[in-house]
Structures are given as C-alpha cells and as structure tokens.
C-alpha cells in the first residue's frame, strides 16, 4: 500500500546515532556474514540490525537474520509497487562456485547489501514501504514464507529485458514510419533513453578497465616478490659489498610487493566496486524505462478502447437500443480503468523526473568519493614506493664507496 | 615471450588506435602530447648474441623512436649509459616536471623527481632545475662509470648501413649475395695511428674469423662471445628484421671487445676495424676440411716413425680440437678418458682447489643471473601492463567525460564530468610515466643480460685451461712409454755382438722423439701456466667489473623507481586535492 500523503523525511544511518530522539530516524546495517548449511545447499546469512524511533516499527532496535534471496524478494516487491522509482540495485549472484565463499567476495557483497538497504531507508518514498518493514522485522519463518510465495509472480530480469527491447524496436519502427507509434516520442524522453543507453556502455568499459587495473596491481606485486627473491639469491653468490646490496634490494622489493597487494584490494573495493554499482544502477533505470513503456502502452490502449466504447454507447443511445444499460456499465468500467492507467503512467513520469535528479546528484557524490579515494590510494602507494627505494640509496652509496 | 603483447589478448590494432586517440586528445591546460613513440610496436626479437636469453626486455629496449637518427651519436664510452640521446624525445612536451606545488604534503624536497632522467625534463624551463639536473647527472655519472680514467681515452664503435653485396664469381649463376655492414670507429687511442674516425665494411664471416683468431691468441681470457651464426634460409637472411637484429648484435659484440682492456689493443681487432678491403686475418676453415686434412696426415703419423709422431712444438700452444692433427686429438681423447675412468691419477692434476671452487661458484652465479634476469623480465612486463591498463582506464574516462558534457542536463552531471576529467588526465599521465619508467628499467636490468654473455666468456676461459692441461697430461704420459721402449731396445741391442745397426738407429730415432716430446711438454707446461695466470687475472678483473656494474645497475634502477614514483605521487596528489570535497574521513560523523 502506498501512502498518498506527503512523506515525512526520515534520516538514515548516515546521521549521527546521537541525534535527538525527537527527529525521526531509521538506521540499518548489514553485518556478520556467516556461512550456513553444507555442500551445494550452503549459503551466507547476514545480521540486519535496525535502529529506529518510528512508531510503525517494533521497538528501538531489531535484529533479524537474512540471506541474499530475502534481499532479492525486497527488491522485486519494491519494483512492482513503486513503478517509476529507480530501485537500488543488488550485487550479482555470483557465478563462480569457488569464489562464492572467499573472504573478499563475502565482504564485498555484505558492503553492497548494506548500501542497498540504506539507500531504500533514505529514499523519501521507499522508506515508508510495508515490505521494507516486513524485511527489517519479520522473523525468519515468516520471511521464508513470504519469499516462497512470491516466486513466479514477478517478472524475471530476462522478461524485463525483452520488454525493453520491444520498447526499443517500437521506437525505431516509429521513426521509420513502420507502424502507428505506441511509444512516447517526446524529445526529452528520447534524449533520456539515449543517454541511459550510451551511459551504460561507457560505464561498462570504464569498469572493465578498473577491474583489469586491480589485476595489474596484483601482477606487479607478484613480480616484485619474485624479483626480490631472485635478487637475494644472486646476492648470496656475490661477495661483499655487492651481496649485501642485492640482499637489501631484494628485501625492499618483497616489502613493496605486499603494499601493492594491499592497494589492489583497496582499488577493488573503493573504485571498481562503485563503478560496478553505477552500472547496476543504470541497468535498474533501464528496467524502470521498460515499466514506463508498458504503462504508456496500457494508457494508450485503454484510452483508445474507452473512446471506442463511448462511440458505441452514443450509437446505441441514438438507436435507443436495449443494450444501452449494459453498454453504459461497460463504458464506465473501461473509463475508470483508463483513468487509472493514465494516473499510473503519469505518476511514473513524475517520479522519474524526480528520480533522475536524485540519481545524478547521488552519483556525482558517490563517484567523487570513489575518485578521491582512488587518487589518495595511488598517491599513498607511490609515496611509500618512493620512500622505500629512497631509503635504500644511502646504503648503496656506502657499499659502492668501499 | 613477446613482450609487447597484452596477456588479455587485446587486439594490437585496437591498442594502437587507442594510443593514437590518447595522444591526440586535448587534455586542456596541460597540452596534448605530440607524436608518440611506438615503444611497444617493435617486433624486433632482440639480438641473438646470447641465444635463448633475449625476449621481452630486449623487445622493449631495442625499439627506437623512428624519428630519431640511428645511434651514431658520439658519447664517451664510459659515460652514463642512462643518458638518452636528446633527439629521440623531441616530440614530448614538458609535462610532469613542473616544480612541485608547495602545498603538496606528500613529498618533501629535494626530490628525485626533478633530477630523474626523464624526456620531459629536457624541455623543463626552470634554470635551477636544469642546473640541478646536470650537477646530479654528473654526480651519478661519475659514480656509475667504473673506469678510473673516464674521459681521457675512449673508443666507440658503431655498426650501420647494411647493404647487399654479391660475391664475384666466374660461374654462370653468379655468386651468393651477402650483407655487409659499415663499421665506424671513433677513438683517441694512440694504437690506431692517430686516426680519430674511420670506417670499414665487413661481412658476418669476417666477424667469425675475428672471433676465432682472438680465441687462439688469447687463450685463458674471458673473451666476449660473438653473435651466433644463424641457421636460416637465405631468404630470411635478407629480411630487414633479421639484418637489424644482426646489426645490433654485431655492434654489441664489437663494443664489448673494445671494452676489454687487453683485447682492445689486439692486432686482430685493429686489423678488423681499420684495414680497408679484405680482412687480413687467416680465414677459419670449417670442421670438415680440417678433418680431411687431418685424415691425410694420420696414416703417416700412425705408421711413420720418429719425428712424425711428435707434436710439433709450435702447435702445442693450440688446443688439439681446432687443429688438423687427428692423432693428437686421438691421444688427448684417450688421455681424458683415462683421467675420467682410469684408476691411475694423471701425472698433473688440477690440484688448484681454489680453481675448482671458483668454477663451482661461477656456475652457481650463472644460474642465479639467469634466474634474476628472468624475473627482471617479468617485472618489466608487469610494469608495462600496468601502464597500458592505466592508460586505457584514462581513455575510457575521457570518453565518459565528453559524453556527460555533451548530454549534460544538470549541474550534477557537469561537476561529475569535471571530476572525471581530472582523474582521466592523471591516469593518462601516470600511464606515460610507467612507460618511461619501464624503458629505463629495461636499460638498467639489461646489465643482467650482459653478464650472462660474460659468463659464457668465463666458461670459455676455463675451457682453455682444461684443454691446455689435457695437452700437458697427454705429453707427460707419453714420455714414460717412450723411455720404456728405449730401455727395452737398449737392453736387447746390448746382447748383440758388434752392435745392432737397425736397433741402434731406432734407439736414436726414439731418443730424438723423446727430446722433441720433452720440449713440447715444457712448452705445454709453460702454456698451461700462462693460461692459468690469464684465467686468474681475467676472473679477478671480471669479478671487480661485474660487481661495479651490478652496483651501478642497482643504483640506477632504484633512482629510477624513486623518481617516477615521486612523479606519479605528485600527479595523484593533485587529483586528491581537486576532489578533496569528497573526503569522508575528514567529515565529522
């Protein structure tokens, strides 16, 4: 059920927990990943801690256990109920089996899920969702029940994509004048669709290179390690002072290898992951665009049908047919449906306008943070590399003076 | 390992196009780069002088900017090898060497970024920078060069201008074609008769001859190995790639020869470098004809008596293997077998424990150098890949920036586009720094490759010693048997009344043989001692040089790393500064 009143803005987990309790707040954290089950059935469960002073919630703090598919349930429900809003994206279901339980992957997923829930809790409309309340509070059995009920009803991503492609092809058909357009053709909306499409391509490429960069850090780290070892062995063959110099060189090289591996992880978490999140967000927007397309189509078709029914009714009235009563009822029903469809469509349009603004601002902020952290990380790495090698120079000078 | 290929299978054309895109992009204030060097587009496989050891490193190091002239720039032989010829880097604009901003909290002066030998520094405008550059240049230069008399005498050889020539022949088909190279020498050494610059034309066969004559004259010395003869078809021989590889290899070889303090004064080398026209050194003949000649002599040796079976004294100073004396070969072979398998100790044993230990150590050293040079290659490849990917990342963000700017419908987008641009610019710069860092790294770590070649030379020197010892052992073992024969004959002859004319004659012949063999033995022993001494002094010299070169290598490598790390640190610190409003750590929670 959606609230039609003006929603109160609730502060989320970004605010200080010590903010005065008069101000409404809702703060969520996803923590403590634990592996449960065995073999193929194994999965990760998370602790979801909710801290709030809202009356709709049971008490100031609630802790529940949730797994990935519960998050999926929440996302699907919100997508179905809040059309027009860009539902925050979820991290992917992992494909590679052996990677599924690696510490890095689990941590990355946990962080992504935490962001997911918090974005919902911060969204002016979504935060009032009943499904969110269920997700944050229901006990595990109830949650399981809800989850099993919903399978099959909601569209799978593949269906959404198909719909979106239909939207696309219809657009091009309209442009080519093939058939009567059943799509919006306003310039502004066209521009938006084109923007979203192109953006995904650009972002995907940037993310691909960011991921490769992480690999390069690891490779460079590894090669420094191997080089260090080899150089130390070489030093063992040479007499002094060259031997000592090689040994020092090798040790430094091994040290730097560790720093590079650390930085690789940082780049992955703080730079590549936000970029991936950006891509997912754009994909979520595409799903919303598909929904809008469907809603528009319905609105057009129903409007069309209503008109026909009206014409028919008028005709019947003129001929004073006894079918008038029936026709009138039909007409009124259709008209109500059509108005509802139009309302739904227009609500999507309005929401999307607001959402786009939010999206742009949010992304600028998030990307800015990512860039800043990346730059800082690279600067720190370069600095420590420079310092490490620099510290070697006096020793080398001393050795060669001998 | 073909170093220029991206392990992810990135299409070369794509990369090339991207690189061009990168270079042509207008990066705003910092100006765009000019023409880029196809540093990684070379397909040259490196020289074959140390077969099997060349790969990624030489691929990167052998590429030259096509705009630069061939390396005939005159540089004193002992000067700092890091100084790149300025002309190669004309196209780079001053980029990263601007004075460090004072608010940079990460790096404290004085910084190596200012003095590292970067092409960007060539165009740096600050006078102070320049002065600092040159003073630190020379400081490093002095410590990097190992010769005490660094600027007084030099010899610089360059190989250039390969040309196809044809053998003159009376046959209808005409002669074979072959390639000749121009060998130009610049020197102020007095041995060359006061000439300061001269050129000759030589073909590869001449180089083989030179190498063989040197091997004969300088037994026991660590002579740099010559480039391999390549067993390829004549079609391949003419290919540009192969010719270029060989040119580079020849140049390296001749430079190494001229760097050797003794060999640089050799008559053979002088003749090779100076004498116009035909090379006045005795041609090496191939093994087959040597065997044939030897086969002719063998029956006489086997069945003849007296002097014919003795090794001519002057030949003793040469190893048996190279010569035509099959009988001697045979004898020494028998001796070496008896050394290895026979119960009796050979008359002269390699008793120099020190030598044996040294040999073992040299072997270990060689193994470690091989290992280190392999890991050095991996390191170079990793640095290269890092630079490439960084550049691709920057490029992707540049495209994103352009896109957002074009489609900007909100201020948020414009801000984001600007942030991206800063990041992208930094990434592209960092990528260039990695490339430069790498090309310098290659030059430094190349020292490891160089010494692989020298290890081969050491092995050669040790082999000379072993073969000389074998000659001594063989001769020594002959004497007792000859003596025994004489005694037997004398005993038999004394029993005959009035003397045994034929036996007496034989005794005299044998005594003659003994005398010759004694002389040969003495010569052989002297030769062996001489070679031992050569070995010793050479190994000592080489050890010293190697250690000094390795120290220089390490210093150069480290200075390089420091310099470029600082440069990159500056670039990223700037971006961190520009995005400081996003610093969440500073914000109070």
TrEMBL record, chain A:
Residue runs in coiled coils: none
Span of domain PX: 24-143
Disordered as annotated region, ranges: 1-23
Xref: SMART domains: PX (SM00312)
Alphabetized PROSITE patterns for the sequence: PX
Domain of life where this protein originates: Eukaryota
Protein name: Sorting nexin 1
From TrEMBL, chain B:
Record keyword Transmembrane present: no
Biased composition (Low complexity): 136-152
InterPro entries xrefs: AH/BAR_dom_sf, PX_dom, PX_dom_sf, SNX2A/B, Vps5_C
Residue ranges annotated for the PX domain, each copy included: 159-280
Descriptive protein name: Sorting nexin 2A
Record region (Disordered): 1-104, 117-154
Compositionally biased region (Polar residues): 45-62
Keywords, comma-separated and alphabetical: Coiled coil
PROSITE patterns cross-referenced by the UniProt entry: PX
Coiled-coil intervals: 348-382, 472-548
Species in which this protein is naturally found: Camelina sativa (False flax)
A UniProt-annotated Pfam family: Vps5
Family annotation (Gene3D superfamilies): Arfaptin homology (AH) domain/BAR domain, Phox-like domain
